[in-house]
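Can't attach files on this board, so I'm pasting raw text. These are the components:
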Amino acid sequence: MSSFTERRPKGTILVKDKNCKQTVPNYKDVEFLRKFLSAHGQIVSRKRSGYCAQCQKQLKAAIKQARHVGLLPFVG
Amino acid sequence: MFLLDNQVVREDWKSAKNLVQEALNKHGAKVRTLRRWDERKLAYPIANRKRATFFLGYFDIGVDGLPALRRDLELSEKVIRYLIQSCDAVPETENELAAAEQSADFVVPAPPADDAPEPRREDERPSLEDSIEVPDLNDLEDMR
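---
Top answer:
Structure tokens for the assembled complex are below.
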């Protein structure tokens, strides 16, 4: 059976992958964040970024903050 | 982070900085550091501006003052955008950079015009158009 219907209980926090040694930049590191955008300005998936689930969330937040202040584009 | 209209910074950048400082002080914020971060071309136009000056500040503010501060910044025409987020501690480099800005010999370059192209950074790769050599048509005719 697919695990599609299995949802994480509300309020639980994802545990950071122990093997994840990546550093997530903040919204001011524009040149670094730009690497995680596709040609159309979309955020790349975990498969391509190589981040664990928690780091990918932080990356997503950083990119969205950078977009808000006009450092990164919404669309390419 | 506060994005200020370049027109305000062109007139006097210290008054632009004071504008942010006064807005923070008005709502009971204790400003730790406040400095000019950069002047950049925006990824998309904000308030019909293509460039803006970024100010980065660290401050303590209570929950009572924050909504009022946000409302003031929203209404301000000089602050075109802002981003307030919580932070555990002020980075060590911030104090040094803010202190360097307050020295007498610190000069802020005048912001360029809104349509001025972004200066190329040293670490940036040359564009593909620069690397392609276009042959001279006269030479091709000689070859024939």
